[in-house]
Each structure stands twice: as structure tokens, then as C-alpha cells.
Design a protein that fits this description.
Blueprint: H1 3-10, H2 15-23, E1 27-29, E2 32-33, E3 47-49, E4 52-53, E5 61-66, E6 95-97, E7 104-111, H3 114-121, E8 129-135, H4 144-149, E9 164-169, E10 172-177, H5 184-191, E11 196-204, E12 207-208, E13 216-218, H6 221-228, H7 230-233
Parallel strand pairs: 7-11
Antiparallel strand pairs: 1-2, 1-3, 3-4, 5-7, 5-13, 6-7, 8-10, 8-11, 9-10, 11-12
Helix pairs in contact: 1-2
Bound molecules: uracil.
Length: 234
């Protein structure tokens, strides 16, 4: 972790304060004064501020059921950030693992553990995400094969990875993806001449969304660990 972030995670200071503390020679790493905010700090390093040893807070992990018209960015833009829904301290340390569009609802994972979220979002890990899709036109059962084979999206040179389409009825399907390209599901259905009316993520790996829209909860230790291993479970 970067030294400036380590200080934020161990104190109530923000990144600007942390940089100033480092530049003013108040931070020592393994008995050496360090002036570089990007200096990498490892688990067994001893970091002191004004002579006091710093201990970072434990990482935090949450699930949130994102409502419509909120975004998965850390800052408010055209729509407010979904992080506004969490009434907890030190929210600036958190980020959302894998974005949903403003008009998509459902499961988002929130954490301050970059390694954990990387594991979930890294394409090579093929972590499965399950979406409930409502379509504007009826879908025919033989289309499941196209999703399995991969679909070439407009402007892209490689087809999508195999995706599993489960048809509930003519306008309602479940789609399981292991990648997350820009507006991927909307573009996949557009490529086959259909249109997504609504999109809701209900599961990531083995973790199912179980809070109401706009609500959130902490993940259990077992859930956090299962998602750390999700690449091996799938
Ligand atoms: N695919 C989309 O088109 N949008 C999302 O939010 C997620 C997947």
C-alpha cells in the first residue's frame, strides 16, 4: 500500500494531510524518514508518525443493492455516488468493485481492499456475475447458443467470452457473464436485434444479493474469503 494511503487508513487524516505530514519529515518507515507519499509500505514495515507507531484499520467489505440513477464512482457526477447510501465513517477509503450503469440496479461490492476487488474484477479470474434482464422483444430459445459461442460487439475485434443465457420466459432471462466490458449486456442484446428494458445484478460468484433496494450490509468473514477464492471455485 502507498505510504499516504497507509497514513489515511491508520489515522483520521485525509490524503492531502498525509502528503503534508510526509513532506514535513514527520513520518518514519523502518527507522528512515521518508519523503515520498507513493513509497510502498508492506505488512511487516514499522511506520511511525511523530514517533507513534501506526496500525491500519481492518479492511471493510459490504454488499449494496444499488438503486436506479446512482453511479458506481466515488464522486457525484450527473447522478449521486452509490457510496452516499452508506452511513459509515471514512467513506473516502472505499471503492466499488466492478461498475454498474446508472440505469442498472442490484448487487455491488464495496471495499477498501484493492487486492480483493482486483481478484473479483480481473478478467483472467472469470468471476461469474448473474444478471436478470428484461427484454423489449420476445427472445427465441435457440439464441442461447449465440451467447455461448460469443458475440462480436460493435467496434470490438474479439467476441465476448462464453456467456450462459437462461430463458425464464419470452421477455425475461438470466445471463451469466465472466467479463465486464463497457455496457456489455445492452450491447450483446443490441447485437442480436433486441433491447434491454431493465437490468439487475443478483449474484457475484456464490454471493447472492439479499438486501432491499438502497440497503446494504457488511459481508461475513466467510463471504469475504469465498470471494477471495472465487477464481478457484468457478
Ligand atoms: N452490462 C450492461 O450493459 N450494464 C451494466 O450495468 C452491467 C452489465
Amino acid at each position: 500500500m502507498r505510504l499516504d494511503k497507509f497514513i489515511c487508513k491508520s489515522t483520521e487524516y485525509d490524503l492531502v494531510d498525509a502528503t503534508a505530514l510526509i513532506e514535513n519529515s514527520r513520518v518514519v518507515v523502518n527507522e528512515v524518514i521518508t519523503h515520498e507519499p507513493t513509497h510502498q509500505v508492506h505488512k511487516n514495515n514499522v511506520v511511525t508518525l511523530d514517533g507513534k507507531t501506526l496500525t491500519p484499520r481492518l479492511s471493510r467489505y459490504f454488499m449494496l443493492n444499488k438503486p436506479l440513477n446512482m453511479i458506481c464512482s466515488n464522486i457525484d457526477e450527473q447522478y449521486p455516488s452509490a457510496l452516499n447510501l452508506l452511513d459509515i465513517d471514512n467513506k473516502t477509503e472505499l471503492h466499488i468493485a466492478g461498475r454498474l450503469d446508472a440505469d442498472t440496479t442490484g448487487l455491488v461490492l464495496i471495499t477498501d481492499d484493492g487486492h480483493w476487488s482486483f481478484n473479483i474484477t480481473a478478467p483472467k479470474n472469470k468471476c461469474e456475475k448473474v444478471y436478470k434482464v428484461v427484454l423489449s422483444r420476445p427472445i427465441s430459445p435457440d439464441i442461447t447458443q449465440r451467447f455461448q459461442q460469443g458475440i462480436l460487439l460493435q467496434g470490438e475485434s474479439s467476441p465476448t467470452l462464453p456467456a450462459t443465457l437462461h430463458i425464464i420466459d419470452a421477455h425475461n432471462v438470466l445471463l451469466t457473464l465472466t467479463e465486464g466490458r463497457f455496457h456489455q449486456i445492452k450491447r450483446m442484446f443490441s447485437a442480436i436485434g433486441n433491447r434491454v428494458k431493465s437490468l439487475h445484478r443478483q449474484q457475484i460468484a456464490n454471493l447472492e444479493l439479499d438486501v432491499d433496494i438502497g440497503h446494504w450490509r457488511s459481508l461475513t468473514q466467510a463471504e469475504v474469503e469465498a470471494l477471495s477464492l472465487s477464481d478457484k471455485l468457478l
